Amino acid sequence: MAPPGRNEKCPCNSGKKYKFCCGLRQRGIDPPLTSRDSAVRISLDWLRTRYKKKFTEALQRTLIGSLSPDELVAFGDLQMDEFEIVELNVHELVLAEGWLDVKGEMTKITDLLLSAKGPHFEPAERRWIEQLGSRPLGIYDVTEVVEGEHMVLCDSSDFDSAPIVVKERSGSRKELLVHKLACRVMELDQDNVLSGAVYAFSHILNTTLDKIMSSEELVDSYDEVTHIPLRSLAIYEFWVKGLLGMALTPRIMDNSTGEPMELITDYYKVKDWESLDSLLISQEDVEGNRSQGWTKIVEGSDGMQRSAASINIDDEKDHISVFYRTRKLAIAGKEWFETLVGDAVEYEASEVQDMTNLSLRGTRREKKQEETDDFAQSPEYFEVLETYIRKLYANWADEPLPVLGNKTPRQSIKSNQGLQRVKGLLRSYQQGENSQAANDSREAISYQFLWDALGIKQEEK
Fold first, then answer.
1. Per-residue confidence band for 442, with pLDDT thresholds at 50, 70 and 90
2. 445: CB partners within 8 A, 6+ apart
3. pLDDT value of residue 225
4. Radius of gyration for the alpha carbons in the chain, expressed in angstroms and rounded
5. Mean pLDDT over residues 15-25, rounded?
6. DSSP state of 226
7. Which residues pair with 108 in a beta bridge?
8. Which of 117, 142, 223, 239 could cross-link to 199 by cystine, CB 3.0-4.6 Å?
9. How far apart are CA 24 and CA 84, in angstroms?
């Protein structure tokens, strides 16, 4: 019988590629088999021998879950390496949380494995299976990554819990800073490690993920066949939908108003600077002056003061721009501003920017299509982009954020746990910007101004 291809799955059921497993032995090299690798391999072999039909049914039911016909078609189009990751996650999910019908009685799979009639495990292998059956699938924010060494995870729902340093060599990549991870944190040789199965979710899916996790329907509910908790199945299925490009991506919402972010700017030509300045500074809720620009401040129901409108001095002579975060703020703000200043200004144009893709959807002046790409890489575009980002985060340090347990960043940094979460947020912002800049072939905008606003320093890595 011919050996499998180097990139095919190893026939020993380890879940690894042949070249990294038995293929090494063919070349006289012992593969790096750890106690966790061997524990999983022994478990899978034993289950396929003793409970082949029932275990296979549990795997298949978990694998396709409640995917729609369209999703099943897309599932069949996954690349081989993607499908291998799915299989690895499914195998662990069934091993860790699945149950089998044994002589009419539902029995947890890890209990079967660890029973007197189960397979023989060395002590370290047994401890791994015990942990696999008892450690929950948690959801964490990745707040720090030292590539090739470790990651720092913070529980997404327990804001008072201490950060967890996880030893991880191959999987510790800076790209994970812009993700939440669903994973099992295990102990191995006095280190925290990941069990193997990892579900990564981009921050844009956080709102949907939080809604899934807070659903009362998932509390103490189980799949009727495998008895896997529905909460764990929901995490897996949502992750698969994301992998297939079929997960619903919610719009980014403004915390203070509950509206979708739209970043709206109105442009005006100034006809009377003295009148404009006098009228604005006469308002009790307006701060600023002609040299720095003005900000209209409102107080929310939570007692926090926030910007409702930012009036900025444009580089172009005799022009200003008025910036709003949402459409509702823009409608109310435009009526307030134009009623207040009257003939001191003349309206010219408006611009709306999509928060999910920081690229201009409209400009004050018509441009030829062939000029657009050049503009996107020009110093002018960089300046526009940086201005928008600074506007967006102008009050960030003092805005309550759900990801911080509805505390402000300034409040959060008073505790070690909160400081780690805030640093993680800032790292994720910068990592996301670095990735977007690389895609746009432009220089990345620095978020150092947010570190400076809080008076905290970045650690050198």
1. confident
2. 382, 385, 386, 389, 433, 437
3. 86
4. 27
5. 56
6. T
7. 99
8. 239
9. 19
Amino acid at 62: T
| Burial profile 395-409: b = 16 or more Cβ within 10 angstroms, e = fewer | bbbebbbebbbebbb
Give the DSSP letter of residue 326.
S
For residues 264 and 157, give the distance between their C-alpha atoms in angstroms, rounded to a whole number.
33
> What is the helix (H) or strand (E) element at residue 155, kind and residue range?
strand 150-155
pLDDT category of residue 159 using cuts at 50, 70 and 90 = confident
Q: Is 376 helix (H, G, I), strand (E, B) or coil?
A: helix
The residues, any chain, with a CB within 8 Å of residue 361's CB and separated by 6 or more, are 351, 352, 353, 354
At 304 the three-state DSSP class reads coil
Which one, of 48, 30, 38, lies nearest residue 14 by Cα? 38
**Phi, psi angles (nearest 5°) of residue 382:** -60, -40
Residue 159, classed as helix, strand or coil, is: coil
* Summary mean pLDDT of the chain: 81
DSSP state of 417: H
63: its two tokens:
């694998």
Contact 31/20 with Cβ under 8 angstroms?
A: yes
Give me 106's structure tokens: 């539902």
Q: Rounded mean pLDDT of 305-322?
A: 83
The candidate with the shortest Cα–Cα distance to 239, out of 343, 49, 88, 127, is 88
β-partners of residue 322 are 266, 311
Confirm if 64 and 75 have CB atoms less than 8 A apart. yes
Q: What is the pLDDT of residue 7?
A: 64
Q: For residue 41, what are its two tokens?
A: 């391999």
Q: Phi and psi dihedrals of 126, rounded to 5?
A: -65, -45
pLDDT at 377: 56
